[in-house]
Design brief:
alpha/beta; FAD/NAD(P)-binding domain; 3 domains; 5-stranded parallel β-sheet; binds flavin-adenine dinucleotide; binds iron/sulfur cluster
């Protein structure tokens, strides 16, 4: 145990400062102040609050099975190098989860029963940042080559984790990606102010040095000139991993939807991320000078909010169809579950208004065909369904509307159909207990298998799927199965 009295002596969570709002709205950089080396003492002090519980419930919260009490003790003892080893033992990409994970481990932390939980996520990111600064993150080249080949379709966190594990196991791995750059939602979904792309580039460089090959601009199973057909895919590779994400946005089918100025959130965020990459966008969707309404109160909505504020929106309002979540756990969300709470993310700190119980019933369209407003009604609940209450309609002015209502099932449909892969009623890829789809030699992981989820689940599934593929190819495996299909967060 790090410090037997640490949790008694230090009861508060100490987290890095965020940059002042007016300053951070002027750029796209991450919202945190640059970390000074001396500040690592604060991180060690926080690690010392860990009680090294007999049953570490933080493990229940994290699908990766991160060895949290072990790296807490190492950080407390300032053995950062060994802490980095322990971190990488269960997580290929702690720099992504350490920045963007909602940290279900902290919701499950035993200290959270009567004190603020250990700052696990900040300890994680401090370890990996220090490891990169010290040059400890080196390519891990395979000890032998198996002569077997694997195609990983999709380069989001699930595909990347599967590819890294399989390359290190000695297979010849090619990641095929339809976008022009690898990274999936890490690249074109999550904005720079939450996850600077230099972290992604650094990890991709490590993967390339280890031997993973990346082929971008190739839609597998598509019909364009750069497409790769299913026959070529099956004949060139001994196994295939489908990690094609859940990129089909949920639509809002109400009158006026076809008006100019109404866009799915991902169209908007992709363009904004491309702009930050330095790409030229000929007809950009921009919030500059506009009254923006974001439909959907989740993380994607918050990412749209932070982006619109940085682009100079005149006003931004986020609409949530449900009730305002509580600020603290209530009886329906007891420890150690991950509660749905009223969240103040960095983007919420920066501006905008939020409305709850707001059902959109239609759009107002001006003479030029552009959106000028939304008709909204108060939501009421009928037999568990959310419906607009008659007689409560009002009009909200809007010149840009972003629809951030989630996603409905697996991306890469054309490929799945061409392969003959079956889907569930929810539109996700059917797979068995070893990540096999209904087609022999084809495996799956991440959002296309689980449905829209989190980076941490995508990495966990990618790692576990790699173990299943290795076993399929070699008859046995020493790769870890971090998670089994169908495993879910702790609920009541
Ligand atoms: C805006 C937004 C913000 C988010 N923020 C967070 C966050 O802060 N924290 C968090 O934990 N989670 C967040 N998430 C969720 C998280 O990003 C996803 O759960 C995760 O990226 C899923 O990983 P994946 O590898 O399964 O799929 P993806 O990251 O979606 O990657 C799938 C890849 O497959 C490619 N592809 C699809 N079909 C084909 C084909 N036929 N051929 C070749 N390539 C193909 C796609 O182009 C894509 O690059 C966010 C999601 C969104 C949309
Ligand atoms: S549950 Fe919290 S206090 Fe207990 S081992 Fe995990 S991080 Fe430490």
């Amino acid at each position: 145990m790090a410090d037997p009295r640490g949790f008694l002596r230090h009861r508060d969570r100490e987290l890095p400062a965020r940059r002042p709002v007016p300053l951070r709205l002027m750029d796209w950089r991450e919202v945190y102040e640059a970390r000074e080396k001396g500040e690592l003492g604060v991180v060690s002090r926080q690690a010392g609050r860990c009680m090294d519980c007999g049953i570490p419930f933080c493990h229940q919260g994290c699908p990766l099975g991160n060895l949290i009490p072990e790296w807490n003790e190492l950080v407390y003892r300032e053995d950062w190098r060994e802490a980095s080893e322990r971190l990488h033992a269960t997580n290929n990409f702690p720099e992504f989860t350490g920045r963007a994970c909602p940290a279900p481990c902290e919701s499950s932390c035993v200290l959270g029963i009567n004190q603020p939980p250990v700052t696990i996520k900040n300890i994680e990111v401090s370890i990996i940042d220090r490891a990169y600064e010290e040059g400890w993150v080196r390519p891990v080249e395979p000890a032998r080559h198996t002569g077997r080949s694997v195609a990983v379709v999709g380069s989001g966190p699930a595909g990347l984790a599967a590819a890294q594990q399989l390359t290190r196991a000695g297979h010849s791995v090619v990641v095929l990606e339809k976008d022009d750059r690898p990274g999936g939602l890490l690249r074109y979904g999550i904005p720079e102010f939450k996850l600077e792309k230099r972290h992604l580039e650094r990890r991709l460089a490590q993967m390339r040095a280890e031997g993973t090959r990346f082929r971008t601009g190739i839609e597998v199973g598509g019909s364009g000139p750069d497409a790769l057909d299913v026959e070529q895919l099956r004949s060139r590779f001994d196994a295939v991993v489908l990690a094609t994400g859940a990129g089909i946005p949920r639509e809002l089918e109400v009158p006026g939807r076809e008006a100019v100025g109404i866009h799915p959130a991902m169209d908007y965020l992709t363009q904004a991320n491309r702009h930050v990459e330095g790409d030229w966008i000929s007809d950009p969707i921009t919030a500059e000078g506009k009254d923006v309404v974001i439909i959907g109160g989740g993380d994607t909505g918050a990412d749209c909010l932070g982006t619109a504020l940085r682009q100079g929106a005149r006003s931004v309002r986020t609409l949530a169809i449900g009730t305002r979540p509580p600020e603290e756990r209530d009886e329906s969300q007891p420890w150690p579950t991950h509660p749905v709470l009223f969240e103040v993310s960095s983007a919420h700190e920066e501006g905008g208004e939020r409305s709850y119980l707001a059902s959109t019933t239609g759009f107002e369209v001006d003479d030029s065909g552009a959106v000028s407003g939304l008709r909204i009604a108060r939501t009421s609940y009928q037999d568990g369904r959310r419906i607009p209450t008659p007689g409560t309609e009002s009009v909200l002015p809007a010149t840009l509307v972003l629809i951030a209502m989630g996603f409905v099932g697996a991306g890469g449909r054309a490929l799945h159909e061409a392969l003959g892969v079956e889907h569930t009623a929810r539109g996700t890829v059917v797979h068995d207990a070893t990540w096999r789809t209904s087609v022999d030699g084809v495996f799956t992981a991440g959002d296309c298998a689980r449905g829209q989820s989190l980076i941490v689940w995508a990495i966990a599934e990618g790692r576990a799927c790699a173990a299943a593929v290795d076993e399929h190819l070699m008859g046995r495996t020493s790769l870890p199965y971090s998670v089994r299909p169908g495993e879910n967060p702790v609920t009541v």
